[in-house]
Amino acid sequence: MSAKLIAQEENFKVGDSVPDFKLWLTDGTRLTQDKIKDKVVVFKFWFTSCLPCVIDIPPLNELVIEMENRDDILFVAPALDRKEAITDFLEKHTFIFDIAYSAMDVSQVFNKKQVYPSYFVIDKKGKFVYVDNDSKQSHFIPLKKAILKALEK
Prior knowledge:
Helix content is 34%, strand content 20%. It has 6 helices and 7 strands; from the N terminus they run αβββααβαβαββα. The chain has helices spanning 3-9, 51-55, 57-66, 83-92, 104-110, 140-152; strands at residues 22-24, 30-32, 40-45, 73-78, 98-100, 118-122, 128-132. It is globular, with a radius of gyration of 15 Å. The protein starts with a helix and ends with a helix.
């Protein structure tokens, strides 16, 4: 196996720069790397039929509410599902992240192991400060600490 191929299969690590991406949000807007400059971004990659992905939504909503007065943070949940499935899901479940739909291409770039849910926190300089994409479980204390530390910078 070539070194280039091995590097493509590796996951991002803390300190790596965020790759270029393009996400379509359910409100019709487009989110790109350029639009997250000077913001802390929390990404949760998920899909609607993933039970662990759904179970962790209430504590994630609490994080958003706790930080709702800040204008320097974005909570984004790229989903593998199509927009219609997301819309149906949101009629039954409250999820107050900005939701992106049909995000398989971006998920494959960020989450090479394709483990869900996966979490990434990006600082205001566009660097990963938290990566959890292989545990298959949510650890909200380290996630929250990473968010707070990134917001201090």
